[in-house]
Specification:
4-stranded antiparallel β-sheet, single chain, globular
Length: about 120
């Protein structure tokens, strides 16, 4: 797979895989941390580096990590603001696994004297 090109939304989402929750009757927290996330600032073209944390309570399906890693790779050459990328990740992951709840946090490295933390949350109604 060529990660030097941009991916369409459909291509990105198609990389996400799920598997059956081994204990769907129980609420338990699943936390995945990716300390090496990269995207590109759409204003400057400079790389943005972040640690992305996903904290969720699965319903019937859980996220598979290889697919999640490949999904993250698709952002490497994509110009996208911090706020947009975190909300996009949340939307895509909710669409993929329909969790009971999910919080996605991006802890972005210092650039221009500022560090930024963006958090988006979903709760099934």
């Amino acid at each position: 797979m060529d990660f030097t090109k941009e991916f369409s939304l459909e291509q990105q989402i198609s990389l996400l895989e799920v598997f059956d929750n081994p204990r769907p009757e129980r609420d338990y927290s699943i936390v995945h941390v990716c300390p090496e996330f990269t995207s590109v600032c759409p204003k400057t073209g400079q790389p943005d580096f972040a640690s992305i944390t996903i904290d969720y309570i699965a319903d019937a399906k859980c996220l598979e990590l290889k697919g999640l890693k490949l999904y993250y790779f698709t952002f490497r050459n994509q110009g996208i603001f911090y706020e947009a990328v975190i909300n996009r990740i949340l939307d895509d992951l909710v669409k993929a696994c329909s969790p009971r709840s999910m919080v996605v946090t991006g802890d972005f490295n210092v650039r221009g004297g500022f560090s930024s933390i963006v958090t988006a949350e979903y709760k099934k109604s």
